[in-house]
Amino acid sequence: KSGGVFTHVVSGLASFLRARESAADDEVPGVGVEAALAQAAAAMARGRLAEAAAALEGGVRGSAAEAACAGWVADARERQRLEMAVAVLRAHAAAETATVA
């Protein structure tokens, strides 16, 4: 397993977008669309959806890639919220089960 479906989506975005970055971004390592995609992919590989969304959103802000990435960022944040809700429900169910036993 190499990171899951979201990692593949981020990789696909990287190859699809190839948005042209400004000269200022090229002068600063770790800044720009390509760096944001790499950071998002790394966060996804660690299972950190919110971190991936923040990296991607911040890195593409003001670029041609911003609109193309907006949907993925929203979906990643929604998935994070859903995963948190499931964790809370599981914890609640475990607590209820423990009090019944």
Describe the structure.
By secondary structure, this protein is mainly alpha-helical. It contains 5 helices and no strands. It starts with a helix and ends with a helix.
The level of helicity is over 70%
**What is the string of SSEs from the N terminus onward?**
HHHHH
Beta content comes to under 5%
Secondary structure class reads: mainly alpha
Overall spatial form: elongated
Strand count: 0
Task: Kindly report how far apart the N and C termini lie.
Answer: 38 Å
Rg measurement, Å: 17 Å
- Low-confidence residue ranges: 19-27
Short note summarizing the structure:
This protein has 101 residues and is an all-alpha fold. It has 5 helices and no strands.
SSE arrangement:
Elements: H1 5-17, H2 23-27, H3 33-45, H4 49-60, H5 66-100
Helix pairs in contact: 1-3, 3-4, 4-5
